[in-house]
């Protein structure tokens, strides 16, 4: 008779997904909307794949995610001891720096600021040429189609936080 410790747990609620798609995507500051544009797959399907828990993703889906996130498939499957591998963590940091540089370039108020931002961009591209297609941080919320409500619609809204006669939400 086997002890309870030897019995494998197959409960989807307690299992850890066999992929790190969400962790890699968030570390690179890439939205599901961006992945959707890059892969041609609806955001709803991508969200379901990202949150899937028992290995329900096909190899072709993992490959599609790897292409959209510009990482090797193995980075989505393995669970290194310290979280993200050094390569992916470094790339995620450089992507965030490039997004900031692109925002500086787009909103430079003087030619001197633009030249500094251009020089920073050129130096960063010398280190990692594949960052050439990275765009600036969005200035405002992402644009949605009229029929899309976004994640904020899914969040509960508590009316008991309003005080009578107060304009504050706090």
Short description:
With 170 residues, the chain is an all-alpha fold.
Question: What would you say this structure looks like, in words?
Answer:
It is a single chain. Helix content is 46%, strand content 0%. The chain is mainly α. It has two domains: 15-81, lambda repressor-like DNA-binding domains (434 Repressor (Amino-terminal Domain), Orthogonal Bundle); 85-136. Helix 6 (86-106) packs antiparallel against helix 7.
Helix content: 40-55%
Q: How is the biggest beta sheet arranged?
A: none
The helix count comes to: 7
Summed over residues and divided by their number, the pLDDT gives a mean of 75
Distance N to C terminus: 57 Å
DSSP strand count: 0
CATH superfamily of the largest domain: lambda repressor-like DNA-binding domains
The CATH topology of the largest domain comes to 434 Repressor (Amino-terminal Domain)
Q: How would you sum up the global shape?
A: globular
CATH architecture of the largest domain: Orthogonal Bundle
Beta-strand content: under 5%
Quaternary state of the chains: single chain
